[in-house]
Amino acid sequence: MEGYQNKIEAEIAELTKQIENKRHILESEKGFVEEKEIIRQAVGEKMSETSPSYVPSTSGTKTNDTVGSYLDSADENTTNVVNSLLEKVFSTSMESAMKDAMLNEPYVIDMFHDALTDKLYEKLKAEGIVK
Asked: Residue 104: left (phi > 0), alpha (psi -120 to 50), or beta?
């Protein structure tokens, strides 16, 4: 379990660096950028690295801040799949969960992307990494 925890911490540290780089780039291009949008783009890039065929949705961040909001309209099976993938992120590895996510339908992948963005935003905010 400790090995997994170290891998997860390393993945989050790497993602944090990507977020900082992305923040610098986006702020120089657009001025102010929402923290959650920066995380969303960084997660999308990470998912694209995991599966080059993945193209993140360009619809932007949802307005609701809870993971449940993304899954409220989903059927029970989809909700279970997304929740299982989220659990895998924090119990095994982000990369492994992303690879598994790519085996699903595009709408499930998008829901996972949105839900993971929210979870990471909450975690990074609690750690004082984002505002």
From this structure: beta
